[in-house]
Write a structure and sequence with these properties.
It contains twelve helices and 14 strands. With about 400 residues, it is an alpha+beta fold. The protein has a domain of about 35 residues. An eleven-stranded mixed β-sheet has the order 1-14-9-13-8-7-6-5-4-3-2. Helix 2 crosses helix 3 and helix 3 packs across helix 7. The longest helix has about 35 residues. It is globular, with a radius of gyration of 24 Å. The termini are far apart. About 35% of the residues are buried.
């Protein structure tokens, strides 16, 4: 007679194993919370009052630069017949410009730099919020610098696109509804998603069915590597909005685990178990998408997570207020800033062609040894991490969400 494994016994062994593993993990988490409580009481964790809709942060200098270079970017792309996402070139140019001194960025920039030095923006980023936009708008950006930066960053983008196996032109050149104005995402009942086009009086002109569904993580990573302005995919799972006759999504959202210790600690401080949390890591929309595509896909992703991952307590995401208003974050339910970390851009010579070509690299991509990195020197507002609560936090909060914001040095 053969010895047949007892399925019940094996199941019990697995149940005991997973219970023991959870107990060990819980013990580690509990000790970490104790350490964080001690750190807060000892003043080792610095906090400030969080941003609200009433005092949402803006960077007057970057806003002024953006207003001046956006039309230049459009003209540059048209004149040079470059196939790319204009937003990508705009962001790469903005990032690169931050590596230059204010006196070189603007005509008569010495005067602006003296104003900024006296305002204290080089000592503390919080002073950026006190800059007077009526002073800054008097300065004209250096056209010579802008053209130099655009030529450099266009080389990098074109080199990246040459290596891409995506149908780049089909994605970045608006066609169909993406070449028309007035489209927005709407819900019809629980499951039907449409994109509708309205005229200036709010009358519906056209409608197209939109499908929300998972995206293969390899495809999502390719989209985010080649087209998202950070060019650093982080994809454990992904979702997209599709038109019924298209194979590729027009909006692609990537979601990952909370893999950084400072984020895990922040969640614990606000009462959430970082093991039961997700990070909305990357969001890319092709040019011309319906105006509320970002907030709409956030909403669909939250519904999917609540239905399929009932243990998930909270979602995190981040944005850079120096460059974006964050409106899509707010309307997408990421309303609560909990953490501010320094925002510094790093560039290295990608050696494309004969001239030095400085490419932007995130910390996650800085893996080369012996490479000299050039950091941004224009003071920037910090990157803001926000949360959206899906369920009540597992633990009693140490800090109060909506009141406290952690400062990471």
């Amino acid at each position: 007679m053969h010895n047949t494994p007892d399925i019940t016994v094996e199941s019990n062994k697995k149940a005991i194993y997973y219970s023991l593993r959870e107990a060990i993990n819980f013990s580690i988490i509990s000790q970490r919370r104790i350490d964080l409580i001690k750190a807060v009481k000892a003043g080792q964790i610095e906090t400030v009052s969080t941003f609200t809709k009433e005092n949402w942060p803006k960077h007057p200098i970057i806003e002024h630069i953006k207003q001046q270079i956006i039309p230049i970017v459009s003209s540059f792309i048209a004149e040079n017949r470059i196939i790319c996402d204009p937003l990508d070139l705009e962001y790469q140019a903005l990032f690169r410009i931050t590596t230059f001194d204010l006196k070189d960025i603007f005509v008569d920039g010495n005067e602006l730099k003296n104003y900024c030095v006296n305002a204290g923006i080089y000592q503390n980023w919080i002073n950026i919020l006190n800059l007077d936009p009526s002073v800054i708008v008097n300065f004209q950006i250096s056209s010579e610098l802008v053209n130099k930066v655009l030529e450099e960053q266009a080389r990098i983008i074109q080199d990246r696109i040459k290596k891409s196996d995506l149908p780049i032109e089909q994605i970045v050149v608006p066609s169909g509804i993406f070449a028309e104005s007035g489209w927005e995402i709407t819900k019809d009942g629980e499951n039907i998603i449409n994109s509708i086009q309205k005229d200036s009086n709010g009358n519906i002109l056209n409608a197209r069915r939109v499908f929300f569904r998972p995206v293969d993580t390899i495809i999502a990573s390719r989209i985010h590597n080649d087209l998202h302005y950070i060019h650093t995919p982080r994809t454990d799972m992904a979702f997209g909005f599709f038109l019924e006759d298209r194979q590729l999504p027009f909006t692609t959202l990537a979601i990952g685990s909370i893999d950084r210790a400072y984020k895990q600690n922040a969640l614990l401080l606000f009462g959430f178990d970082p093991r039961n949390a997700v990070d909305f890591t990357r969001l890319y929309s092709r040019p011309g998408v319906p105006r509320n595509a970002s907030s709409a896909i956030f909403g669909e992703a939250f519904s999917y997570i609540k239905h399929n991952y009932p243990k998930i307590e909270v979602a995190m995401s981040a944005f850079m207020p120096s460059y974006a208003s964050g409106l899509s974050m707010l309307t997408g339910r990421f309303e609560t800033p909990i953490l501010a970390k320094p925002n510094i851009h790093y560039f290295y010579d990608a050696k494309i062609g004969d001239e030095a070509t400085m490419e932007h690299l995130t910390k996650r991509r800085q893996t080369m040894k012996g490479v000299t990195f050039i950091p941004s020197i224009l003071p920037l507002l910090p990157t803001i991490e926000l949360l959206c609560s899906i369920h009540k936090p597992r633990f009693d909060p140490i800090l109060q969400a909506g009141k406290d914001m952690i400062l990471v040095k």
